Amino acid sequence: TVPAGAAVGTLDHGHVVGSASVIDGDTIEIVGQRIRLEGIDAPEAGQDCPRRLFGTWRCGAAATKALRSLVEGRTVTCESRGTDKYDRILGVCFADGVEINRRMVADGNAWAFVRYSTSYIAEERDARANRRGIFATVDSQPPWEYRKRHWASAQQQAPEGCAIKGNVTRNGHIYHMPWSPWYDKVTIEPSRGERWFCTETEALSAGWRPAQGS
Rounded CA gap, 22 and 93, in Å? Predict the structure, then answer.
């Protein structure tokens, strides 16, 4: 529900209200403000997860699709729980009376991010017991481990260990993290103003923005 006095499409008294676009499985954008869903961590956009019997499925793409189904065509209200180091709002978000953060974990589309919050441990426990989504097997790799593995691998190949690719496109200056679906396809051409970054903070401070799925 929209809090009293808050206009749709505005930031008001700790709430962000409006139509949401989906960045990935745990990040949305409302009125130009990026909001990281607090307390959860969804598979990265390019991440695959093992099926119960054999093979893999695109769990990262599925998480993004699931989040889109929860917000598309609805007014979304996010309650701020502060900001992260990238100046994104950490939000608990609702649409049509449904708490989106909780639903993502309960449906097996995200892990409870216990490093930072204990809010959704019960939902993850239930999703595991019923083998929903990413919890269909015990072998699905949590996204924080997936990111760590990809960072370590890319760092070995990058100049001076600075593994973030700054890409100049017709849509602006965009950086790709090692787990971005397009990371391996991006080549750095310094003559075009492209460059490597050592940290996300460095990239953001230089005025670059993250690519979808980074």
Answer: 13
Burial class (CB in 10 A: 0-12, 13-18, 19+), 167: buried
Q: Which two tokens stand for residue 173?
A: 């200056």
Query: Nearest 5 degrees, angle CA 169-CA 175-CA 178?
Result: 125
The pLDDT of residue 14 is 79
64 torsion bin: left (phi>0), alpha (psi -120 to 50), beta (else) = alpha
How far is 40 from 18, CA to CA, in rounded Å? 21
Contact 46, 62 (CB under 8 A): no
Per-residue pLDDT at 7: 46
Over 90: is that where the pLDDT of 12 sits?
A: no
Burial of 129 (0-12, 13-18, 19+ CB in 10 A): exposed
Pairing of β 172-176 and β 164-169: antiparallel
> What pTM was estimated for this model as a whole?
0.85
Residue 1: band (very low, low, confident or very high) from pLDDT cuts 50, 70, 90: very low
Contact indicator for 160, 154 with CB cutoff of 8 Å: no
Q: Which two tokens stand for residue 12?
A: 């008001």
User: Side chain identity at 99, as an amino acid letter?
Assistant: E
Strand 209-210's sheet: what is its strand order?
A: 195-197, 164-169, 172-176, 209-210
